[in-house]
Design brief:
homodimer; alpha+beta; 12% strand
């Protein structure tokens, strides 16, 4: 895979790499996707699992991820109504990216003074 | 690589994955790193190569990447002085992440209405 091509296309036609990076470079995006890799989750579960996120941010991120067909949202007519979030196939296809990020993170720990 | 471990650690001790994601989830970060994968570059070259970035943002991003030892900055006592940026080994180690993002982007194009 020649990354060189990417460099030239960065400035001209729409660039899939740039679009993908825009999508996954949200502060919370990959953490949400990472959590959903293990299966369906409800809103409150997700809110507890993604360190530092608040309700407003989670609502916004989930809406964006749903609009980009990375996750899907299922509502159940229980009393009270319940909603579950899960990854679409497109979302699950991000697993290799997450695994490479995790490998890089473990092999290249940031020193305390770099945080 | 079990991503499940990550989920539990998301909320407790410092999490290498979360730190790595914070590092690489800057809007321009991975585009800058992607461009430097092909070799040393000067400021103006980088500014031209990263679509949409302006001088102030590039200065800020480069400072942060240098402080996190992802890139290194070399100044040359030419007239006028010149500065070159290149990836450290830690920066080059992000290549597999970039390749997986690129693969995902090519296999999962965002529809026009999702941009």
């Amino acid at each position: 895979m020649d990354l060189q091509q990417n460099k030239k296309s960065e400035n001209t036609a729409p660039c899939p790499f740039r679009e993908a990076m825009d999508l996954i470079s949200g502060k919370w995006t990959m953490s949400i996707i990472n959590n959903l890799m293990t299966g369906k989750m409800r809103f409150k579960e997700l809110e507890r699992s993604v360190a530092g996120i608040n309700t407003r941010m989670l609502v916004k991120e989930l809406k964006e991820l749903e609009s980009k067909q990375i996750i899907c949202r299922e509502a159940f007519a229980t009393v009270p109504p319940t909603v579950e979030y899960s990854l679409t196939e497109k979302g699950k296809a991000l697993r290799p990216v997450l695994i490479e990020v995790q490998k890089w993170a473990l092999n290249n720990p940031l020193n305390q003074d770099q945080l």
